[in-house]
Amino acid sequence: MRKRGAIALGIVLLLAACGGGTPAEPSNSAAVRPTTSAVLDIASPEAGAVVRGDHVDLVVDLEGATLTDVTSTDLRPDEGHLHVSLDDELVSMTSGLEQVLPGLSPGEHLLRVEFVANDHFPFEPRVLAAVSFRVKRR
Asked: What top-level class would CATH report for the domain 2-23+34-136?
C-alpha cells in the first residue's frame, strides 16, 4: 500500500511540475531560458480538417532539434521533448513525432504541441504549433 501511495504522489508531483495546458514558470523567475532554432509544425491533422470517428492521428514535423525522453537540468538548445495539449489539457509528454489521440467527442477541438527543454519548461521564445479541427461521428 505504501508503494502505491509513493507512486501516486510521484505522478501528482510530475503533473504539477509540468502543468496543464501551459507549463509553470521555473521557480527561479530570474532564470534565463535557453533559446533554440528548432522549427515545429503539425502535419496532421491539418488546420480546419474534419475528422470522422473518435480519434485523430497526430503527426508532427520538427527540424533543427532532436527529441529525447531524458529529463535533465543539463539543457541543450537542440534537444527536448514535446508537450501535447488538446483543448488546453495536457494529454502527453512524448519523444515521438506520431501518436493517436483517442476518445474525442464531436465538435471543435484545439490541438497544441510545444517543443520544450529537457527540464519540461519552455524555450525562450516558445516553440509552439497549433491547429483546430472538427470531429464528426461517422
From this structure: mainly beta
